[in-house]
Amino acid sequence: MAWHIPRPTFVLTAALLAGLAAAPAFAAEPAKRHTALSLLGKPKQPEGFKNFDWVNPDAPKGGRVRMSAIRTFDSFNPFSTQGVPGGRPDLTQATLMASAAADEESTVYAHIADWVSHPDDFSSVTFGLRKDARFSDGKPVTVDDVIFSLTALKSAHPAYNSYYKHVTSAERTGDNEVTFRFDMTGNRELPVIVGGLWVLSKAYWTGTDEAGNKRDIMKSTLEPPVGAGPYRVKSFEAGRHIVLERVSDWWAKDLPASKGMWNFDEIRIEYSRERTGAFEAFKAGNIDFWMENVAKEWATAYDFDAVKRGAVKLDKIPRAGLSPMQSFAFNIRRPQFQDVRVRRALSMVFNFEWANKNLFADQYVRVESFFGNSELQAKGLPQGRELEYLEAVRAQVPPEVFTAEWKNVQYNSQEDDRRHLRAAARLLSEAGWTAKDGVLFNAAGEKLNLEILLAKPTFERVVQNFTETLKRIGVNVSVRVVDPSQYQRRLDTFDFDMVVHTFAQSLSPGNEQRGMWGSEAAGHQGSNNIIGIRNPAVDALVEKIVTAPNREDLVAATRALDRVLLWNSYVIPQWTFPFERIAYWDKFKRPAQLPSRGAYFLQTWWLDADAAKRLGAR
Fold first, then answer.
1. C-alpha dihedral sign at 563, 529, 337, 360
2. Radius of gyration of the chain (CA)
3. What digits encode the pLDDT tens for the residues 10-28?
4. Is 469 exposed, middle or buried, given 0-12, 13-18 or 19+ CB atoms closer than 10 A?
5. Residues in Cβ contact with 605 at an 8 Å cutoff, skipping those fewer than 6 apart
6. Cα–Cα distance between 299 and 321 in angstroms, integer?
7. How many CA atoms lie within 13 A of 618 on its CB side?
8. Using CA atoms, how far apart are residues 430 and 190, in angstroms rounded to an integer?
9. Between 406 and which of 1, 100, 496, 566 could a Cys-Cys bridge form, CB atoms 3.0 to 4.6 Å apart?
């Protein structure tokens, strides 16, 4: 669902809220109170459930776990565009409703809010706050905190301002009760996305620090945060490590949406600027859990002694759900990439089949959609309701939208290689680029420059073959690896030609689509429209998604958007993998049934004290 952290870890929501009560018989009758909301039907868990079926409600608490993060940090404020935030906001902060994203798409359950209600026209939503909810400093969570949170978040980050665009106000409407008003009716998504609002401490953010300086949510800070989550910062060294300690008397530990979770007494996150040193620390037993995202490493790097003797376990955890668009993303604010023919030409020379065979041990499949592996993916030729939506914008979209199914080019032979390079050269020539001494120039004498900006050195080997092929057709291409903080700054200020970016989606897209593709968001630094799309057809289709009155229209509008985004070649699709590859020292236990969407290690596993003793103190 939408919420949590601005780019890159937004999990996004939707336009169809099903499974809620029918309209009341009389206008005067109060709206029904719910303890869960779903955008895709009835919530999986029944009314009055005790705990999720993918946790162990009796999991023991205790022990320490050491994790690795391949980046740095210089702030504890994840809500601002300033700085590179560290820690995990989902551990130290809390939302009105708890997301069940580990196992259920677009579903939320009571958390800080004990209940939620809304009128049948979805013009507002009301939450009754749990009276025993507390921040980590012991102060109660109040209506004033909730009202403050909406205003503060909208002012602190353009992503939140866009996401809560239709939420016009928040006001106290009863004892421990807050109501959010909307500037539109019929948007079934809005009650759920407001349920994802981070609830911040007004006293903390409007107060002063130990030095007497007034805090500002729009600025970075290394002052440990106050939040209502299960952990708080115990100690840290900026850019090096953070130690989080479990709040032993956490107010939500026995609630149905929290029971059996967050079982480690202490979580230590070690930050490293490069992978090699961090992985060596894992092999030495100084890091306990490792999520592998490099296919070659998974195939070749796990033959060390601890694996052979069974002290380190390897596993592939199935990951259900929609496949995100991982891609090389263009910044079309750059003049050389504003012509779709140029973008198509550069897309054609990416040889995924070579990369998969030579770099990834044939572990991946090519991404084919922004909404892959779901009913939202555009397939075949448009028809029915989808075709109606596209006809309304026919003059503003590529003609191929109506005549051909979009497909990635494939390299299965040497003839494919020659054919695709010739086709790419023709497109570039048609777009006004002429080769001189092996380099492409336009009529103004400017080179066709392309800098691929990376945050991880491990990706250099991935792009090497791609860059060599680009040079063959005359592109003046270079690769630049920068540290995480500089990378984030350049991303926020749109100071790049091309980056590797994943566009996370959900089965119920909605308001967040404006922030990802909308013309208004393209001009706001820090927004999720990193590509810089200003396309009236895209804007129109996004609005059809946001205001879709039913699931059928939502699916049709999303397929139409998918098709238009693909045929405009805003990205070069990369690859996906339907598993999580994990390695861990054999001192942990996990629920008999894991969530359907991954391991969720910190959320659901626990320390096996006896196994830890057998391994020895580390």
1. negative
2. 25
3. 333 333 333 333 333 334 4
4. buried
5. 263, 588, 589, 590, 591, 599
6. 25
7. 22
8. 46
9. 566
pLDDT score recorded for residue 514: 94
Phi/psi region, residue 373 (left: phi>0; alpha: psi -120 to 50; beta: rest), is left
Separation in Å, CA 468 to CA 328, 473, 476, 477: 16, 9, 10, 9
Taking alpha carbons only, the member of 116, 301, 304 closest to residue 192 is 116
For residue 241, give the DSSP letter.
E
- Please report the pLDDT score of residue 361 as a whole number: 87
Nearest CA among 100, 107, 133 for reference residue 200: 133
> 154 exposed, middle or buried (CB, 10 Å; 0-12, 13-18, 19+)?
middle
Q: How far apart are CA 506 and CA 40, in angstroms?
A: 11
Residue-wise pLDDT tens digits, 201-234: 999 999 999 999 999 999 999 999 999 999 999 9
In angstroms, rounded to a whole number, what is the distance separating the alpha carbons of residues 90 and 93? 6
Give the distance, in angstroms, between the CA of residue 259 and the centroid of all CA atoms in the same chain.
Answer: 25
pTM: 0.81
Q: What is the pLDDT of residues 456-471, one digit of tens each?
A: 888 898 899 999 999 9
pLDDT on residue 29: 61
Q: Residue with structure tokens 């998969």? A: 356
The contacts of residue 549 (CB under 8 Å, 6+ apart) are 186
**15 to 95, 119, 167, 182, 255: CA distances (angstroms):** 20, 16, 15, 15, 28
In one letter, which amino acid is 433?
A: W
Is beta strand 498-503 parallel, antiparallel or unpaired with respect to 449-454?
parallel
| 2 within 8 A of 15, measured Cβ to Cβ | no
Phi, psi (degrees; rounded to nearest 5) at 147: -60, -45
For the chain, give the number of residues: 618
Phi first, then psi: give them for residue 578, nearest 5 degrees. -85, 25
Q: How far is residue 293's CA from residue 326's CA, in Å, rounded to a whole number? A: 13
Amino acid at 580: E
| Residue 37 pLDDT level (bands cut at 50, 70, 90) | very high
Single-letter amino acid code for the residue at 52: F
Alpha-carbon span 602 to 433, nearest angstrom: 52
Dist CA 127 CA 514 (whole Å):
26
Calculate the dihedral angle through the C-alpha atoms of 289, 104, 232, 251, rounding to the nearest 10 degrees.
-130
Can you tell me whether residue 313 is helix, strand or coil?
A: strand
DSSP annotation string for 123-139 = SEEEEEEPTT-B-TTSP
> What is the residue type of 47?
E
Rounded distance, CA 359 to CA 376, Å? 30
CA-to-CA distance for 491 and 231, rounded, in angstroms?
A: 30
- Rounded to an integer, what is the distance from CA 431 to the centroid of its chain? 35
CA-based nearest residue to 531, from 516, 553, 545: 516
Residue whose pair of structure tokens reads 């990951």 in the numeric block? 319
- DSSP for residue 33: P
> Phi/psi at 451 (nearest 5 deg)?
-105, 125
pLDDT at 87 over 80: yes
Domains in the chain and their CATH numbers? Answer: 231-319+580-615 (3.40.190.10), 325-576 (3.10.105.10)
Whether 477 shows a pLDDT value over 60: the answer reads yes
Taking the C-alpha atoms of residue 213 and residue 221, their distance in angstroms, rounded to an integer, is 11
The helix (H) or strand (E) run that includes residue 329 is strand 325-330
